[in-house]
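Example record

The entry below shows one chain as it appears in the dataset: sequence first, then structure tokens.
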Amino acid sequence: MMALVFVVLSAVFAGLNLPALKYGLTELSPVLLMLIRFAAATLVIWLIYRPKIQKTALKASFLSAGALLLIILGLSLSTISYVQAILAFIPVAVGLGAHHLLGEKQTLKSIAGILLGLGGTLFIIFEVKISGTNGHQLVIGNLLVFFSAILSALYIVECRKLSKTISSIDLTFNQFVATTFVFILGMFAMAILGKPLVVSETTNVSLYSLIYLIIFGTVLMFFFYQKGIKQTNAYVVGLSQYLQLPVGVLSGVILFSDKISPVFILGTGLILAGSLIGTFNHLSNEKS
């Protein structure tokens, strides 16, 4: 019972990350917001666990850091609902990456799942074009998030190999270190280009967003996810990524008045169908 509670809590915290980021973006630049978040989370994890730098894990973590950079840039141009729906494509992309990089065999079911997920993602990305709305900025933001999903999937595939010899705590710590380094470089790049790190006068909104992101959206989310992995099976833990979708979309609709169109619903349904087909097919292959 407690394992399920841990998994649900990690999914809820992850799903609420996007609205917290969106609130933070109203006052802080994407680079500064993410730099503060991950620098603080890195310090907290180091103080608690005293993890170590692992060269192989650190190199792979730059895939995740790149994905996070694209997500925050995409979110600044798109909406929470679009971003959360496109990120649901990650399990599908993981299946494709595992086939090419790890040599995992693809069945007809998994191929069908990949095609469904990809089709649904394209519907979401170009929804404004399909509906006849002029939204070039939205499409660019959605494309950035799609590429971030690809990088995230590649990182997960790499972690499958690295997790055999490196602990999950060390993997996460190296991920945070790499991400902090990337956003430090981004901060210097913005300074050279003369871009402001603070978009507007900061208020309690950005402060509360950062507190949530550091404590709940990063440190506690990781803690509960790891507790869930230790106390339950892969099927239950795998469901956490699907729980994030309704949490993220509902928060976007309630807090930011995101509009849900029939094309969006169709695309989201296709992505979920493709992801679930791939997940269940992978789990059935493990059992056999």
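Notes for this example: The longest helix spans residues 204-231. The chain has a mean pLDDT of 83.
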